[in-house]
Amino acid sequence: MLIREAHASDWPAIWPFFHTIVAAGETFTYPVDLGEEEALDWWILPPPNRTVVAVDGDTVLGTAKMNGNHLGNAAHIASASYMVDPAHQGKGVGRALGEYTLTWARAQGYRAMQFNAVVETNTHAVKLYSSLGFTVLGTLPEGFQHPAQGYVGLHIMHRSL
């Protein structure tokens, strides 16, 4: 597996699983009817932010975007988001992307990374982030309307760098 910078030319490989994940409405706070053009603008970020893909040959396994979480006097906090193609889950892609984003954030001089909205029922993500050193700072009760489980909490997770 190679992790490299994502380009607009990668979007046709990203969009199918991006759309499937977002439309399911179980893990992202994005509108479930998010259109392809708007999604592209939200995901493929310009510098100094970064978007990457994890690839095996020509196959895109997953993607991550990383960016500053805040502006001004809080600009020293990074954030990141991850999507792994469901066909490639359970193969270490998410862990590799998570480790990559932490390395990127350190190299950019960020002092910490914060995830603002980790759906508490997304147990695979919570477990992965915890294993990468993140802790739950708090949970917004009923902050997310899960399509099957109703209103569930949104975790704010943090890790010092």
Fraction in helix: 25-40%
SSE pattern, N- to C-terminal? EHHEEEHEHEE
Rg over CA atoms: 15 Å
Query: Could you name the CATH topology?
Result: Aminopeptidase
Instruction: Assign the structural class, choosing from mainly alpha, mainly beta, alpha/beta, alpha+beta, or little secondary structure.
Output: alpha+beta
| Oligomerization category of the chains in this entry | single chain
The beta-strand count equals 7
Sheet with the most strands?
7 strands, mixed
Mean pLDDT: 97
What count of domains describes the coordinates? 1
Low-confidence stretches: none
What spatial form do the alpha-carbon principal axes imply? globular
Q: What's the CATH first level?
A: Alpha Beta
Number of helices: 4
How far the N terminus sits from the C terminus, by CA atoms, comes to 25 Å
Q: Widest sheet: strand order?
A: 1-2-3-4-5-7-6
CATH superfamily: Gcn5-related N-acetyltransferase (GNAT)
* CATH architecture verdict: 3-Layer(aba) Sandwich
Beta-strand proportion: 35-45%
Report on the structure:
It is a single chain. The protein is an alpha+beta fold. The chain has one domain (2-160): Gcn5-related N-acetyltransferase (GNAT) (Aminopeptidase, 3-Layer(aba) Sandwich). Helices cover 29% and strands 37% of the residues. The chain has four helices and seven strands; from the N terminus they run βααβββαβαββ. It has helices at 11-24, 36-43, 93-107, 123-131; strands at 2-5, 50-56, 59-68, 77-84, 112-119, 135-146, 150-160. The chain has a seven-stranded mixed beta sheet with strand order 1-2-3-4-5-7-6. The chain starts with a strand and ends with a strand. The model has no long low-confidence stretch (mean pLDDT 97).
